[in-house]
Write a structure and sequence with these properties.
- There is one protein chain.
- This protein is of the alpha/beta class and 130 residues long.
- It contains two helices and ten strands; from the N terminus they run βββββααβββββ.
- The radius of gyration is 14 Å and the shape is globular.
- The chain binds iron/sulfur cluster (SF4) (2 copies).
Length: 130
């Protein structure tokens, strides 16, 4: 199963690229509060968010960069670049065994975020009651 396409508006993250793209190699979507099931999109976060503050902190995030995607995105500004997605939000109807996501696309929101908790997976939908 291929993961979802990722669209992200979190412009303060070191992984963010113009065109609402993300050049991380993989992103982790998690519950905002550890051990507490997300009931709404606001209870989720992109744990891979890393605030863009300057060169030193940008260099600290380089181990999770999708370099192939970054080169493509730099040379071809309109190109599609997507990270893989690991998600632990098992209360979402798109969640599948193995911490995968079966949505075709996810929207990560939280423009001007200062920390992970300011970001959300807006595509989250609670599972229907059994
Ligand atoms: S907040 Fe998450 S999805 Fe958005 S650019 Fe950063 S790592 Fe990628
Ligand atoms: S849509 Fe649901 S399963 Fe997919 S990444 Fe978002 S919270 Fe996780």
């Amino acid at each position: 199963m291929n993961g979802p396409k990722v669209k992200c508006v979190v412009n303060t993250c070191v992984h963010w690229l113009k065109g609402n793209r993300c050049n991380a190699h993989n992103i982790d979507i998690t519950h905002e509060e550890e051990g507490k099931m997300s009931q709404t999109a606001e209870h989720t976060q992109c744990k891979t968010f890393y605030q863009r503050r300057g060169l030193a902190n940008t260099l600290g995030s380089l181990d999770n960069v999708n370099w192939g995607g970054w080169i493509t995105a730099t040379l071809l500004p309109g190109s599609e670049v997507y990270p893989s997605v690991t998600c632990t939000v098992s209360s979402c109807q798109y969640w599948v065994e193995g911490n995968r996501c079966k949505a075709s696309e996810i929207d990560v929101v939280g423009a001007n975020a200062d920390e992970c908790q300011d970001t959300n997976c807006y595509t989250f939908r609670p599972k229907a009651a059994p």
